[in-house]
Amino acid sequence: MAKIFQVSARAGMTRVVEPVARGLLRAGVTPNTVTVVGTVGVLVGALGFGARGHLVAGALIVTVFALTDLLDGTMARMSGGSTRFGAFLDSSMDRVADSAVFGAVAYWLATEGNHAGVAAALLCLAAGGLVSYVKARAEGLGMTCNVGIAERTERLLIVGVGGLLTGLGVGPALPVALWLLAAVSVFTVGQRMVHVYRQARQLQPDGQR
Ligand SMILES: CCCCCCCC/C=C\CCCCCCCC(=O)OC[C@H](COP(=O)(O)O[C@@H]1[C@H](O)[C@H](OP(=O)(O)O)[C@@H](O)[C@H](O)[C@H]1O)OC(=O)CCCCCCC/C=C\CCCCCCCC
Ligand SMILES: Nc1ccn([C@@H]2O[C@H](COP(=O)(O)O)[C@@H](O)[C@H]2O)c(=O)n1
Ligand SMILES: [Mg+2]
Ligand SMILES: [Mg+2]
C-alpha cells in the first residue's frame, strides 16, 4: 500500500521534477549540491521555524526542501549515472533532516509543557532512525529491505499534516499524529526485521541458523 502510494506520487511529481532537474543541470548545479542545499533548507524550516512554534511556516518550508530529495537522484540519472558517494550522501542527509524535524517538534512540545507529546516525538525519532538503520544494515549484508508501511515519505507526511493542523489551530493534531506515527514506525521496524530474517534463512546454508 505504502509502495503503491510512493510510486504513484512519484510518477505524478515527475512532470514537475524533470524540467527543473534539466534546468539546474544546464545551469551547472550538481546533484550533490541539491542534496546539501535541500538538507540545509529542511534544517532552517524545522529548527528556525518549527522549533519556535511557527508550525505552518515550518511545515511548508520543510515540505518544499524535502521535495528536493526527488530532484537530486533525477539529476544524477539524467547526467549519466548515479554515484556511490551521491547515494551515501543522499541517505545520510535524509537522517540529518529527519532528526531535525523530530528534534524540532520535541523541542517545541517541551516549551509547551506537553511531556507526552515530547515522548511521542522522541519515539518517532528513535523508531524512524531504526527503520532506516535496519535497511542500511541489511543492504550492507547483501540483502534487500524495501518493505514497511511507514517509510520516509509516509513519516514526513504524517508529521507534516499533524504540524500543519496544530499550526492552524487544531491543538491536539500534532501529538495525535506523533503517537500514530510512533506506532506505525515501530510496526515498520518489525516488518523489516521479519523480512530480513526470512531472507537470511534462505541465504544461510542449513544448520547455520
Ligand atoms: C505541510 C504539510 C502538509 C502536507 C502537505 C503535503 C504536501 C506534499 C506534497 C506532495 C507529496 C508528494 C510526495 C512525494 C512522494 C515521493 C515518493 C518517493 O519516491 O519518495 C522517496 C524519495 C526518495 O527517497 P530516497 O530513496 O532518496 O531515500 C531513502 C530513504 O531515506 C530511506 O528511508 P527509510 O524509508 O528506509 O526510512 C533510506 O533507507 C534510504 O537509504 C534512502 O535512500 O523521497 C523522499 O524521501 C522524499 C520525501 C518527500 C516527502 C515530502 C513530504 C513532506 C511533507 C511534510 C513534511 C513536513 C514536515 C513537518 C515539519 C513540521 C515542523 C514543525
Ligand atoms: N547527490 C545524489 C543524490 C542521489 N543520487 C542517486 O540517486 C538515488 C536516489 O534517487 P532519489 O531520486 O530517490 O533521490 C541514490 O541512491 C543515488 O543512486 C546520486 O547519485 N547523487
Ligand atoms: Mg534524493
Ligand atoms: Mg534524500
TrEMBL record:
It comes from the Bacteria. Mg(2+) 1 binds at residues 69, 72, 90. It is a multi-pass membrane protein. It catalyses: 1,2-di-(9Z-octadecenoyl)-sn-glycero-3-cytidine-5'-diphosphate + 1D-myo-inositol 3-phosphate = 1,2-di-(9Z-octadecenoyl)-sn-glycero-3-phospho-(1D-myo-inositol-3-phosphate) + CMP + H(+); a CDP-1,2-diacyl-sn-glycerol + 1D-myo-inositol 3-phosphate = a 1,2-diacyl-sn-glycero-3-phospho-(1D-myo-inositol-3-phosphate) + CMP + H(+). The chain crosses the membrane at residues 23-47, 116-134, 155-171. It is found in: Cell membrane. Pathway: Lipid metabolism; Phospholipid metabolism; phosphatidylinositol phosphate biosynthesis. Gene3D superfamilies: 1.20.120.1760. It is an enzyme of class 2 (transferase). The active site is at residue 94. Its cofactor is Mg(2+). GO terms for biological process: phospholipid biosynthetic process. Mg(2+) 2 binds at residues 69, 90, 94. It holds the Pfam family CDP-OH_P_transf. Belongs to the CDP-alcohol phosphatidyltransferase class-I family. This is Phosphatidylinositol phosphate synthase. It comes from Micromonospora rosaria. The lineage of its organism: Bacteria, Bacillati, Actinomycetota, Actinomycetes, Micromonosporales.
